[in-house]
From TrEMBL:
Keywords: DNA-binding, Transcription, Transcription regulation
Keyword Electron transport annotated: no
Keyword Oxidoreductase: no
Organism: Thioclava atlantica
Protein name from the UniProt record: AsnC family transcriptional regulator
SMART domains noted in UniProt: HTH_ASNC (SM00344)
Record SUPFAM superfamilies: Dimeric alpha+beta barrel, Winged helix' DNA-binding domain
Lineage: Bacteria, Pseudomonadati, Pseudomonadota, Alphaproteobacteria, Rhodobacterales
A Gene Ontology molecular function term of the record: sequence-specific DNA binding
Domain HTH asnC-type, residue spans: 5-66
Gene Ontology CC terms, in alphabetical order: cytosol
Pfam families: AsnC_trans_reg, HTH_AsnC-type
Amino acid sequence: MAARIDALDRKILAELQEDASQSLDEIARKVGSSKTPVWNRIRKLREAGVIGKQTAILDPEALGFDACFFVLIRTSEHEAEWQEKFLATLRARPEVLEAHRLAGDIDYILKVRVENARAYDRFYQALISEVKIHNVTALLSMEELKSTTALPL
């Protein structure tokens, strides 16, 4: 169930999505409020689970992770035991930035960030040695056109 938030909450959340390292004073000034009410709203939004953990967004290419692959997985295995092992394998692989179970012809899609094609092959070999997979298709992203963590408030 979606949390009930008002226009001021939305402004505060938009500011936090833009830059969560801003001071309370900066956020309050930008949203047209004062520090204490903004702090109270942020605290309530955290308690309600609207705001999760705060992290730093790193530039993957600046750190040598030049290759982004989208990995399409089809499996003939759908038992709970296989799914648990697959999920554990994905969680143990730091290269996997996102993993989604899909409706349609493809069962799963992974977003994998690695240094290069050779590093992707090492990831792929490790993955298929851990869990039985019917078919894997890897798509190399040639250019990232848009990437955001901001929700459309």
